[in-house]
């Protein structure tokens, strides 16, 4: 498993996002960033995760924390997904999969004995200094967004 580890600098990126915008991680320096990687728009687990983060967004906002979801889906697909589920998180598109690879979340998966490449559901909490403060790999959706919020609160309490 590759990708950034706790304490290392989070790989920067500049990618298209929903609504025709471009997102650059370094633009958020000085704020906390929750970067969650998910396999595909509109699948049950990914929808539940995005809805959970959206539900907690006011609490993340109060902690000056940006929520970014990333998948290989197109920006147009992100727009439809956001609209359909009233999502308020920013959805970033990595169709070239370079950022997914930099974070070590583009991995070989297996389903029914068939091997394929896909996104390992993972979340990185990036502190105000641009370094990885915490990471979660092979995420199970139920309760995950709340666990991440709790980690942000701890980070803020420790003043990092």
Describe the 3D structure.
The protein has 4 helices and 9 strands. The protein has helices spanning 44-62, 75-85, 98-102, 144-157; strands at 14-16, 22-24, 32-37, 65-71, 90-93, 106-111, 114-119, 122-126, 132-136. The protein has a 5-stranded mixed β-sheet with strand order 5-4-3-8-9. Strand 3, helix 1 and strand 4 (65-71) form a beta-alpha-beta unit. Helix 1 runs parallel beside helix 4 (144-157). The model has no long low-confidence stretch (mean pLDDT 94).
Summarize it.
The protein is an alpha/beta fold. 31% of the residues lie in helices and 28% in strands.
Distance between the termini: 26 Å
Number of domains: 1
Overall average residue pLDDT: 94
Q: What is the overall number of helices?
A: 4
Derived from helix and strand composition plus strand pairing, the structural class reads: alpha/beta
Poorly predicted regions are none
Here the CATH topology equals Glutaredoxin
CATH second-level architecture: 3-Layer(aba) Sandwich
Strand content: 25-35%
Oligomer: single chain
Please estimate the helix content: 25-40%
| CATH level-1 class | Alpha Beta
- What is the string of SSEs from the N terminus onward? EEEHEHEHEEEEH
Which helices and strands, and how do they pair?
Blueprint: E1 14-16, E2 22-24, E3 32-37, H1 44-62, E4 65-71, H2 75-85, E5 90-93, H3 98-102, E6 106-111, E7 114-119, E8 122-126, E9 132-136, H4 144-157
Parallel strand pairs: 3-4, 4-5
Antiparallel strand pairs: 1-2, 3-8, 6-7, 8-9
Helix pairs in contact: 1-4
């Amino acid at each position: 498993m590759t990708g950034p580890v706790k304490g290392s600098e989070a790989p920067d990126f500049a990618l298209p996002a929903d609504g025709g915008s471009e997102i650059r991680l370094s633009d958020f320096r000085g704020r906390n960033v929750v970067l969650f990687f998910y396999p595909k728009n509109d699948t049950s687990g990914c929808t539940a995760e995005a809805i959970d983060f959206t539900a907690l967004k006011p609490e993340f906002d109060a902690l000056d924390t940006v929520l970014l979801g990333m998948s290989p889906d197109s920006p147009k697909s992100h727009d439809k997904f956001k609209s359909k589920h009233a999502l308020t998180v920013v959805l970033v598109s990595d169709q070239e999969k370079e950022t997914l690879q930099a974070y070590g979340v583009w991995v070989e998966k297996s389903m029914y004995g068939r091997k394929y490449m896909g996104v390992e559901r993972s979340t990185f909490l990036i502190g105000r200094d641009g370094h990885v403060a915490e990471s979660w790999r092979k995420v199970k959706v139920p309760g995950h967004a709340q666990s991440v919020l709790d980690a942000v609160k701890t980070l803020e309490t420790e003043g990092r």
